[in-house]
Amino acid sequence: MLEKWFKLKEHKTDVKTEILAGITTFMTMAYILAVNPNLLGTVMDNGAVFMATALSAAIGTILMALLANYPFALAPGMGLNAFFAFTVVGTMGFSWQLALFAVFVEGIIFVILSVTHIREAIFNAIPMSLKHAVSVGIGLFIAFIGMQNAKLVVANSSTLVTYQHFTENFSSIGIGALLALIGTIITAVLLVKKVKGGILIGILATWILGIICELVGLYVPDAAVGMYSVMPDFSKGLNLGAIGATFGQAFNFGAFGDVNILDFFVVMFSFLFVDMFDTLGTLIGVASKADMLDKDGKLPKINGALLADAIATSAGAILGTSTTTTFVESASGVTEGGRTGLTALTTAVLFLLSLLLSPIFLAIPSFATAPALIIVGFYMMASVVKIDFDDMSEAIPSFLCIAAMPFMYSISEGISIGVISYTLINLITGKRKKLTPLMYILTVLFILKYCFFST
Predict the structure, then answer these.
(1) Tag placement on the chain: N or C end, fewer CB within 10 Å?
(2) Mapping DSSP to helix (H, G, I), strand (E, B) and coil, where does residue 308 land?
(3) Overall domain count for the chain
(4) pTM, whole model, 2 decimals?
(5) What is the distance between the alpha carbons of residues 397 and 71, in angstroms, rounded to a whole number?
(6) How far is CA 164 from CA 48, 153, 180, 318, 378, in A?
(7) pLDDT along the chain (455 residues), means of 10
(8) To 5 degrees, how large is the angle CA 69–CA 70–CA 75?
(9) 162 close to 153: Cβ distance less than 8 angstroms
């Protein structure tokens, strides 16, 4: 049955590999179950947001498995959730119900763009060199995220970022950062030895080291309260009723207040723009890593993937969460060998199980998943050799695209910079034949975005 649905032999994979890949993907993105409720919980009910997060992730990922048969997982996106809570609701004064409605409308527009193949055309219009650059840029970006999660990279008032000073900060934070380094070495050794499931084993090994060092598990030291237990607490059970606080509130028009139509469209298009190009960038990067792109740089069945993303966005808004999008952490499962929708389905099942077993899943510390993100970043760097650095008109836009993603902390900004520079450089140097009409349109839209829209 699984062979019939997912065509495992055709994709040169098997059930064991796909399930391991799905577990790995889930463990590298399970942090969203804790982070999203914490962020949106500043303006909404925390428990309801947790339920909405898990359910929207499961729905979107199941759709990805069934509509596209791809190993990509979805969940409410980082960045857009902060924009939702702190800018749209906090600064602009929107009610959270109106903000959810903006997300819902964005999803409906995405559905229309997907069924009319406009999003697919945008994907295909991006030059092959930029597609490789997106993969490399995402690799650096998620490695940077991993280092941040482990506190290996910390803020600095003079240089913006710096390394963790272990001699000055050998607290639980410093120890966690050190364990992340050890976990990265463990994972690297396993991969060099070609141990199956090396990334997942690396996560578990780092987690166990954290328990041994009493950072997680039985007890955690805290300067204020001494030692406190973080053993999983299942006493409250599954509270499905919690989601009632947000379910359907996107259509609670009475809570909208006085709506400024112009502000509403600015917010809606901001969600739309960032989500569109974050998703396209993730699909390009992860699909490139998995060798799913054809010789023309196109992704077969991309329309199913885009439709799954679009439907999940609107479904998430109805449930009560910000924009649901394809997660770049899907690359961790692809790196473990995931090639079909069975990987995605496994991840989706774990999101559903998290409703029952949330204390266990939420106990996975960020320093334990950091080695996986760092190693996946290394894997995705491999695409850099496919960029023709002898052709400056291809190489320079590719470099700008790569550099922008980690430095500007945004996949969509990397694509924007890459497209604008590619078009302008080739236009000015007389290489107009390389440019398609859609590239001109995208360039104009990106420039207008910087002039009139800001997230």
Answers:
(1) N
(2) helix
(3) 1
(4) 0.75
(5) 29
(6) 36, 6, 12, 41, 21
(7) 87 93 91 81 86 95 96 88 83 90 95 90 87 86 87 91 79 86 94 82 89 68 47 52 84 84 82 82 83 83 92 96 91 91 96 81 77 84 88 96 90 87 96 92 88 65
(8) 115
(9) yes
